[in-house]
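Write out the bound-state structure for magnesium ion.
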Amino acid sequence: MAHTFPTSETTMGAALNRALRDALAADPDVLVYGEDVGPLGGVFRVTDGLTADFGEERCFDSPLAESGIVGTAIGMAAYGLRPVVEMQFDAFSYPAFEQVTSHLAKMRNRTRGAVTLPVVIRVPYGGGIGGVEHHSDSSEAYYTHTPGLRVVTPGTPADAYSMLREAIDCDDPVLFLEPKRRYWARETVELPVRTEPMQRSVVRRSGSDATLIVYGPMVATALEAAEAAAGEGRDLEVVDLRQLAPFDDATVTASVRRTGRAVVVHEASVFGGYGAEVAARVTEQCFHHLEAPVLRVGGWDVPYPPPKLEEHHLPGVDRILTAVDRLQWESEWVEGR
Amino acid sequence: MAHTFPTSETTMGAALNRALRDALAADPDVLVYGEDVGPLGGVFRVTDGLTADFGEERCFDSPLAESGIVGTAIGMAAYGLRPVVEMQFDAFSYPAFEQVTSHLAKMRNRTRGAVTLPVVIRVPYGGGIGGVEHHSDSSEAYYTHTPGLRVVTPGTPADAYSMLREAIDCDDPVLFLEPKRRYWARETVELPVRTEPMQRSVVRRSGSDATLIVYGPMVATALEAAEAAAGEGRDLEVVDLRQLAPFDDATVTASVRRTGRAVVVHEASVFGGYGAEVAARVTEQCFHHLEAPVLRVGGWDVPYPPPKLEEHHLPGVDRILTAVDRLQWESEWVEGR
Amino acid sequence: MRLVDRHGVRREHSSFTVPDPAMLAELHRAMVIGRRFNQQAGTLARQGRLAVYPSSTGQEAAQVGGVLALGERDWLFPSYRDSVAMLTHGVDPVETLTLFRGDWHCGYDPHRYRCAPQCTPLATNASHAVGLTYAARHKGHDVAALVLMGDGATSEGDTHEAYNFAAVWNTPVVFLVQNNHWAISVPLHRQSVAPTLAHKAVGYGMRGYHVDGNDAAAVHSVVAHALTEAREGGGPAIVEALTYRVDPHTNADAPQRYRDDGEVEYWVERDPLIRMETLLRNEQIVDDGLLEVYERDAERIATVVRDRMAGEDRLDPASLFTDVYAEVPPVLERQRNELAEELREV
Amino acid sequence: MRLVDRHGVRREHSSFTVPDPAMLAELHRAMVIGRRFNQQAGTLARQGRLAVYPSSTGQEAAQVGGVLALGERDWLFPSYRDSVAMLTHGVDPVETLTLFRGDWHCGYDPHRYRCAPQCTPLATNASHAVGLTYAARHKGHDVAALVLMGDGATSEGDTHEAYNFAAVWNTPVVFLVQNNHWAISVPLHRQSVAPTLAHKAVGYGMRGYHVDGNDAAAVHSVVAHALTEAREGGGPAIVEALTYRVDPHTNADAPQRYRDDGEVEYWVERDPLIRMETLLRNEQIVDDGLLEVYERDAERIATVVRDRMAGEDRLDPASLFTDVYAEVPPVLERQRNELAEELREV
Ligand SMILES: Cc1ncc(C[n+]2csc(CCOP(=O)(O)OP(=O)(O)O)c2C)c(N)n1
Ligand SMILES: Cc1ncc(C[n+]2csc(CCOP(=O)(O)OP(=O)(O)O)c2C)c(N)n1
Ligand SMILES: [Mg+2]
Ligand SMILES: [Mg+2]
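---
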């Protein structure tokens, strides 16, 4: 009988769940805890069934205190465990900001490498799910400006699986940002899967006219925009950054040198957002290849709006294409008029 | 007898003290509290004598809890007071991050303007004083990416006075970042003084060859660098940004359009730092005026180092001038080689 | 502490007395309205007219008992679960739901109702109450505050800081902890191993009260007492009201994953409304007629909510930019124009 | 709780006993060394050889008493003021000072000494101790931890969270609060109005002990007892040791701005070393000869510190980049080269 190679469809949420399962099975030092990650399986069900299948010792609910969650994870990791903790929503990671910034990020450095903290902090982040206030923040810029942290965010189910496994195996502390509105995004892929190493950006779509630089929730949106642009005769390349910090810009600079034009897109407010870093460094490194300034598209510089207005806040295909249109396709463009 | 117009020398610390005094005297709703701001006068003596002169009701020590300090200030401001609170050092403002981000910054917006929070948070920030770990962070990027906050930082004693008065009078919450290593910087100026409105950047030195874009502790360093460059025949303009958010880029873009070259300098790590925003937006708006990419100079992308290494971390005159040298003064420069 | 048992019978207590009949009737009325409001909001959530709704069915006594102890100038600091408290405090029912409807964050003017915005980041508004009452005293005003928080929220560092600031500054704040046994799916024993949550008061030099949270009379009596003491300089207090969330955490919750129906039944048998109704009937404080009036009042509010929710408000996208700063800064002015441009194009 | 009064006389106590003579001698020896170490470090700070030094003169009994109660595999979580505790725990004296000398942040390998980095952000390492002991138990190891914190630090939210996690998880941690009456310039009554800081234990379902922190015997006895109970599953505990910081907060402090000399004198009269020495002499546990040996040991360590501090270590600027991540990423590789270039140019 001939072998059939099964393929199957998975959501990003299911891929993350599978990654946690496989990590728990592979390494007895891994454990998962946080608020409601036990019997409930997390408010997004990413930890569904872990307590049932691995026992309370491996996946459990902790007291409701984010600073304490990260602080205890630091202590556990210092003693050789690999804790994977969850912050229930983006804005609820702020109480842990001091632990993340002053301890988690710096411990290796403070101790000249003697103390290694392989902690993964999972944070469902970003908007688009109609969440009330404090449930839709994109906080990546706070973390990417903090040396010592790795900040990664998957854009596809396969990457979600692979990058979470890598993050758990990694000896650096990892802020693992999960684009919550993509939890239900589907992909046909056989798990377990290993994609490119997480520190490498990947070209999700090749194109020659301009580069869309994206990550997390915007990967799918950018691909959609590129499709739409193709209809209008513009061939856009889409680069998915994946690991935001420390950042390896080889892929993205190579792309921009080729296309000569770029737009960085994220959900976060543009001002002081991660896109500023990307735009600045791409410009530093590709200046003479650029036909137009690197433009940035994102949320407005306002607090994340209520559900009924989020469609006007979040960048979508139209806002991206408008930016692409502004990339000075005619030659006699001069700014400041 | 002829009138003599007294002039006098003041330090930045004394100017801030005077601003607090004058604000306390001018408005009974102003009050000052925090850790050690009472009888001790603050660890930098910025609140020296306020308790003695205005009474315990107006300037006092609170329990040692930064989140509580900001949280109570929010409540006070909601009831019509104008609290000025101190975070003893930059890194010790992190415990208050949730209060700042999720409440202080957003309250006006959340309530459609019904609740105004005229809170000033004074934060001595930055390095250069030989402080041990957690005493030298430059945390401006965390705050400037948070819509709803005003983030300001003075570079001179006169500005310190004027901007603090303005900040206290302002109906927006203000993160008032005090460049601690300039507390002892002197200037001959008669107090009270009112300088330019804080939201406006100012040209501290005119020049035609390139623009140094700076703020806070780097204003003095940039002026020094410009002096040194003048000796080598390069005429640098120095723009002091002052209010970092919300940012009014008119002054700086006008300068860069004139000079065609720019370097942004700050103490903070470059990656994801405030300089990225400045570089990105200046490039967006001045692209065809630029002879070279806007470069960034700052601390390395590492945790703030111990005292004995900080000289190698902090940008000084040399690092700035090296960046200026890299502004492609010869015409056939191509990046990426 | 209990003043009325689950069969609606008065219990003697050495230091607390049952509120007078008028207040008992008022407590009941507010609970009837609250119960109906929760139901109505639940329906709207199921219909998709609310983005989310955290019901407080089962907790009416705690909310109503606490709020009706407040004076004229006192402030309420509610969490997301405290719609019934807010309603009782006088906040407009539709404005109470603005947050959950997704129209805006805070749907009302906090100053108008002396009611802080519903708080989602747990425990973070507790210190606001401390600051507000401090400021009021500073200005010579007699203003106390009631902070509502859950059992889970007591684990947060912000709770500790607020308790401590209140105690050290001796501000008139009562922290009413609605211990409904669960923080979403996390049971109390994973949150605290203290004998009671009221015991936490000891560590702050505060008074702590432990009360049957399904006994509106008891909650009212204790909170009123604590507020009086606090006003007179006796310091803040923690009141733990033992109660139960009968409904799911929100309409999006799946309680069957973490709790037994039996537990819910146990608490349904201890329903705060039935208990109070029995007392009121037995003691002839209210008759059928008045009870019907309460039901009608409740129904009327439910209808108002339903009707006013029926229409779809047009939200002006430009309002995104207006209340970020006291004045719209140039950078937001430009963005407002960009958005207007976007909207013109589609 | 006191076992030895300020005149060096034993006091009876129903549940605690004075440690055996060998331990008393050991406690004294460690205090003598600690006192001398503080002096030496103070001198180095005055000479500018240390960037800053927070002395613990006056607090030796609390630190030494706590640390000597630890077992072989137990961990210490010190703050910046706990050099004496660290020294007693076995940390190299010069490595203890690395932080203050400005050579690096943490001067030692925490695993080697089972000693966490000295903690500057107040109260933040308390939860680390909870996590570490949790992990040890998870791996089947018998490891307890002693967290040192100040009175001021108890106001921080992180303290609360750590206490609570420890209690709920039942991890073997003893939180030793050195109540030295001041948080820099802020007196205790502005920090807490609880009867004692040990009372905070009640709110976590923990045991709390209040002890004379200048009585090394008492501190040792109580901490040893609390550790034993904790190891046996009895849960964590708070031990409040009442003591006094005789020196300024650090060499940069100006205590005359906030406290009277009289207060200092009061505490100097209650010096922990004199008390212990009196006891040891009266009970002939040590003689002049042994006391001289202790002094010599102390002097020897002071000399070692002085000598090893005399030279100026050459710090390699490139070390800025090495331990930020497990591997040096390309972006830091480039920056390392840039810095090397800078250094070549000057
Ligand atoms: C700081 C913070 N962390 C996490 C959450 C997510 N969250 C919302 S409600 C909830 C449980 C709260 O339980 P409790 O305080 O007992 O209140 P209840 O919902 O039972 O009324 C959690 C964890 C939050 N809102 N804020
Ligand atoms: C989170 C944080 N806030 C503020 C400070 C600044 N600070 C350093 S020591 C100190 C006082 C600490 O007092 P206490 O806890 O009693 O310890 P002691 O210095 O008396 O030993 C303060 C406010 C800090 N280190 N960390
Ligand atoms: Mg609850
Ligand atoms: Mg102290």
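---
The longest helix of chain D spans residues 21-46.
Chain D touches chain B through 44 residues (CB under 8 Å).
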